[in-house]
Amino acid sequence: MSKPILASTASPDVIVIGGGVIGLSIAWELAGQGASVRLLEQGQFGQEASWAGAGMLPPGNPELARSPEARLRAESHALWPDWTERLRAETGIDNGYTRCGGIEVRLNGSSTELTAEVAAWRSEGVLVETPNLDEFGQRFPALHPHVSSGYVLPELGQVRNPRHLKALVSACAARGVDLRAGCPVVGFDHSANRIAAARTPAEEHRAAEFVVAGGAWSRELLRQAGHDISIEPVRGQIVLLEARPLPFRCVIQSGLRYLVPRADGRILIGSTEEHVGFDKRNTAEAVSDLIDFARGIVPALGAARFERCWSGLRPHATNGLPHIGRLPETANLSVAAGHFRAGLQLSPITAVKVANAILGRETR
Ligand SMILES: Cc1cc2nc3c(=O)[nH]c(=O)nc-3n(C[C@H](O)[C@H](O)[C@H](O)COP(=O)(O)OP(=O)(O)OC[C@H]3O[C@@H](n4cnc5c(N)ncnc54)[C@H](O)[C@@H]3O)c2cc1C
């Protein structure tokens, strides 16, 4: 006999579904603005893409950013220092946010592509330095001598995402968010234009407002609520090395691949983009390619200690931009999903926009 479905006690104002960086940030922001919030997570909080990511936070300038992507990035970039401070004050946890700077490099190639990138950053009002190759080599002596072009983004930042997630969970608890791990939402009770409840196997959770923040799993959740929004999982693999002393201290990027040094001597090598469904395995081919890439850029990494590897599922919105805000056809349903390679960097602005929309404090 199936178990009876019980109505969950005392309905909150808002139910957020999905406890990655996006759902946790929204819950924290809503609770800070006085809403009562319940956060339903099918597994453990912050253990999926948000944990797996590299934590790079590219720069932006809210005054000059024009495209929707650039505006979101710039507004979020401006929020990170304040979010870091407030999380530290509320929880005592240091999320490791730092403006470590970053460089973009190419090996043996033409510099035309990078010239266009430099122009694009400058048109957004972002600080870019373009030292000549000799100066570049002197400033970044660990680089392979075959590096043929590069530029510097001094304002690029990084965050230790596992620590940031811990801080968010702790800060949500401190603000009274009802945190429910091991609670998969399997369906909704909904009429034509309103959600009445989210259903988990054991309970029915009623609220005035609902937010879907289910990362790569959001499409199925939204389908249960009567919406078809295309969000697909894209696997990204990461290799972790340890190299003490660190041969470099800024993020090094080359196209879609990168090296992210952590203050404790760890170096993340990322990443792949693989359309393999919900398969989170690491493959020998990708791991060896990533290590070859790292040694090709910084030869000293050949002597680094291999620590571990992992992968995560990025939520890719097939229209290229994350879905953030209310779904017009359902009066009390919002979505915050599809952030692909940018969910950590965009989490503060996503939370502010969703909370303001729900609480009727519209932003630009
Ligand atoms: C290798 C890699 C490197 C990356 N590097 C960066 C980077 O440097 N900078 C950056 O900004 N971004 C980066 N990203 C992207 C970033 O990690 C993601 O965009 C971001 O984590 C998405 O957050 P999320 O909360 O939407 O998803 P997730 O972290 O996946 O969280 C979604 C949560 O929803 C839960 N859930 C799903 N369905 C249900 C359900 N039915 N009921 C209850 N709970 C449910 C899941 O269990 C999960 O915990 C990287 C990602 C990867 C994989």
In short:
The chain is α/β, with parallel strands linked by helices and 364 residues long. It is built from nine helices and 19 strands.
Describe this structure in words.
It is a single chain. The chain is an alpha/beta fold and 364 residues long. The strands form four sheets. It has a seven-stranded mixed sheet. A six-stranded mixed sheet has the order 8-3-2-12-19-18. The protein has two domains: 6-95 and 160-229 and 320-358, FAD/NAD(P)-binding domain, CATH 3.50.50.60; 102-156 and 232-317, D-Amino Acid Oxidase, subunit A, domain 2 (D-Amino Acid Oxidase, Chain A, domain 2, 2-Layer Sandwich), CATH 3.30.9.10. It contains nine helices and 19 strands. Helix content is 29%, strand content 26%. The model is unreliable at 1-5 (pLDDT under 50). The protein has helices at residues 21-32, 49-52, 68-91, 112-123, 133-139, 161-174, 218-224, 284-297, 347-358, and strands at residues 6-7, 14-17, 37-40, 56-57, 102-107, 147-153, 157-158, 178-180, 187-190, 195-199, 203-206, 209-212, 231-242, 251-254, 257-261, 266-270, 305-317, 323-326, 333-337. Helix 3 (68-91) packs across helix 6 (161-174) and helix 3 (68-91) packs across helix 9. Strand 14 and strand 15 form a beta hairpin. Bound molecules: flavin-adenine dinucleotide. Flavin-adenine dinucleotide binds at residues 17-23, 40-43, 48-50, 52-56, 184-185, 213-217, 221, 236, 238, 270-271, 312, 314-315, 337, 339-345.
